[in-house]
Design goal:
The structure is a homodimer.
Chain A: H1 9-16, E1 24-30, E2 36-43, E3 47-53, H2 62-74, E4 92-94, E5 97-103, H3 115-131, H4 148-153, H5 156-162, H6 166-180, E6 187-190, E7 199-202, E8 205-209, E9 216-219, H7 220-231, H8 241-254, H9 259-286, H10 298-310
Antiparallel strand pairs in A: 1-2, 2-3, 3-5, 4-5, 6-9, 7-8
Helix pairs in contact in A: 3-7, 3-8, 7-9, 9-10
C-alpha cells in the first residue's frame, strides 16, 4: 500500500485538459495496490481512479491490460472502465510515467471471506472468464507454470535461509509439475491475482473485480486454483473445504467445469501456491531490512504448499 | 504520506455500528497526513474521513482538537466536522487506538500557490482566528517559542552534522528571540500548521482548512508568520514579497492587524522558521537510513532562516 508518485495540482490540471471529465473537485492518493500509485479523483462529471504505473508493470503490457478492461466493460462485466481522452487514447503519460484514468467503482473488499462471500466470488470469476471470451489480444502468463523453474533457480539459497531443507522440497514440487501438469484444459483470459482485496462486494453480493495487471492467457481452472488458495484457507494455514465448495458452486452457476478440470484442480492449486510463494520469497529477499513497507510473508504460502503436498480429503469431491 | 493502521471490513462494521451513518459502501486508505492513518469512507448516508491517531499525536490532546473542530463547524467555519456517535462521543477507539469520524470536505490543495491563492489563504486564516474566538478549552503551544531552547539542546550535534557552523548561528537566533520576542500581541487559537497541503480550494477560492492537530493558544500573528514561511517562498529559497503582501491583504479583509502585530511579523516569521527547522531536523535525525518514507528536508527551513537573518526589504512595509 503506497503512493510512489506525487502529482501536483498543476500536473493534474494539465492531465485532465485532454479529457472531457470536467474540473477536479477532490484528489487524494489512496493506499491501494502495491505495484502502482493510485489516486481518487472527483471531478464535476464524476468519480475516477487515476493510476500511475510504476516500474513493476511492464509498459509494453499496458495496452493489453487497458484493452481487456475496456472489453470487459463493453461486455457488461463490472470492472473499472478506462476513460478515453478526446483523441480516444486510454494510455496516457503523467510525470514521464504511463498513467490511466478509470471509472470509480463502489464496493468493499473483505478481509475474512465467509462461505457466502466465496460463493459470490466464485460466480464473479466465472463471469470474468466468460466476459473475456473473444478478447483478441494475447499475453503469455509470464508467471505461469513454464516460468517457475527459472524463478526458483536464483532463489534456492533464499528458500534454505527461510527454512532449512525447503529447497529440496520445492525441487520435488517442480518435478511433480514437470511430470503431471495438466494439458488440454479449457484456456482463456485469467485474472491471475483474484485475491479478496481485488474483489468488491455490495451488500454481500459480488460487486466488481479490479487490478487486472497480471491478467494473461492460461488454463481457466488454474485461475480457480489460485483463487481457492487466496479465499479458502484459514489464518492458521488450514484449508476450509466448505468455503472451497462454495467457491466452486458459485463458479459453476455460470460456467460448469469439465470432468478433466475438476480432476486437475488439486495440482493446479498446488502449482498456484508455488507461484505466489516464489514471487513473495523473491520480494522478501529483495527488500532491505528496516524498510517501512514490508513485503508479504512468503511463509504464508509455504504453509499452503505443505497442505497441498499432504493432499486434501474431499478436494477431488468438490461440488 | 502513509497508512500505518490497517482496518478490516469487520472492524469497520463494528466501528460504524455505534453511529447513525448507514452502511459502508466504499472504504480506502488515503495518503494524507504524515502523523495519522486516514481512510475515505462512503456510506449510504454520505462521505467521511476516518482518522486513526498514531503515536505522534498525544491522546490527551485529542478532546481539545476534536472539540475545536466541532466549535469551528458550529461557527460556520469550513473545516472537517467530527461526527458524534449515538451516545454523543466523537473520540472513539479502533484497533486499540484513538479514532474519529469527520465529514468529508471537497476541495484541492495546491502545490505552488499563486498570488491569488495566497490572498484566499490569508483570508481563510483570519476567518479561522475569528471563528475560534471564545472556544473555552486551552492548549499550550508545545512547539511554541518557549520550547525551542529545549528542543535545540539535544540537536546541536545534528545541526553541525547538517552544516558545519550551523549550531552557533542558531544559538544567535535563539539569543535574539530571548531578547526581542514580542509580547502582549493579540492571542487566540492558532492553527500552527497552516501549510498549503492543509488548505483546500474550490474553483480557486478558499474552501476549507484541515489538520488541526497542532492547534494551540498563541499569538495570532505568529500563525501568520508560520503561514507566510509556508506559502510565500520559492522553491529556490527566495522570498516572494508579492505573495506575502497578498496573504496579508487577504487576512486583513477579515481581521486588520494592529501596528504592533505588523511590526512583529518579521521576527515572528523568523521564529516560526526555526520551529519548523528544529522539528524537521529532529525527524531527519531520528529516521533510519534506507527508510522508504523520507522525512521532510530540514535544509528547506535552514534556507528560509538564512533569508530571515538577512532581513527582508519591504517586509515591514506590508500592505
Amino acid at each position: 500500500m503506497a503512493v510512489y508518485t506525487d502529482i501536483t495540482d498543476q500536473e493534474l490540471e494539465a492531465f485532465l485538459a485532454d479529457f472531457d471529465v470536467g474540473r477536479a473537485v477532490a484528489f487524494k492518493g489512496i493506499a491501494e495496490g502495491v505495484e502502482n500509485s493510485n489516486f481518487m479523483l472527483e471531478t464535476s462529471a464524476g468519480r475516477y481512479i487515476l493510476t500511475v504505473y510504476e516500474r513493476r508493470v511492464r509498459s509494453e503490457d499496458l495496452p493489453f491490460f487497458l484493452g481487456l478492461m475496456q472489453w470487459l466493460a463493453m461486455r457488461g462485466y463490472p470492472s473499472a472502465t478506462p476513460i478515453a481522452d478526446r483523441s480516444g487514447a486510454t494510455l496516457k503519460t503523467l510525470r514521464g510515467k504511463p498513467a490511466a484514468l478509470v471509472a470509480f467503482l463502489p464496493g468493499l473488499s473483505v478481509r475474512r471471506p465467509t462461505v457466502a462471500h466465496c460463493r459470490e466470488a466464485g460466480e464473479g470469476l466465472a463471469w470474468l472468464h466468460q466476459a473475456a471470451e473473444g478478447f483478441p489480444d494475447h499475453r503469455v502468463n509470464s508467471l505461469g507454470h513454464a516460468a517457475w523453474e527459472g524463478i526458483f533457480c536464483s532463489l534456492t539459497d533464499a528458500a534454505e535461509a527461510l527454512k532449512p531443507g525447503l529447497s529440496s522440497v520445492i525441487r520435488r514440487d517442480l518435478d511433480l509439475f514437470a511430470r503431471c501438469w495438466p494439458r488440454d484444459l479449457p484456456e482463456g483470459i485469467v485474472h491471475a491475482d483474484y485475491f479478496p482485496d481485488n474483489v468488491f462486494f455490495i451488500d454481500g453480493r459480488f460487486g466488481a473485480s479490479i487490478d487486472f495487471y497480471f491478467a494473461a492467457w492460461d488454463q481457466l481452472a488454474y485461475d480457480i486454483g489460485a483463487a481457492v488458495n487466496a479465499w479458502c484457507f484459514e489464518a492458521d494455514g488450514s484449508f476450509n473445504l466448505t468455503r472451497a465448495q462454495a467457491f466452486l458452486e458459485g463458479y459453476e452457476r455460470r460456467r460448469p467445469l469439465t470432468k478433466e478440470e475438476r480432476a486437475a484442480l488439486p495440482i493446479l492449486a498446488h502449482g498456484a501456491a508455488l507461484r505466489f510463494f516464489l514471487t513473495r520469497l523473491n520480494d522478501w529477499t529483495a527488500t532491505p531490512a528496516g524498510a517501512l513497507v514490508r513485503p508479504k510473508d512468503p511463509l504464508e504460502y509455504e504453509r499452503k504448499l505443505a497442505v497441498h503436498r499432504e493432499g486434501l480429503p474431499g478436494f477431488g469431491a468438490w461440488s
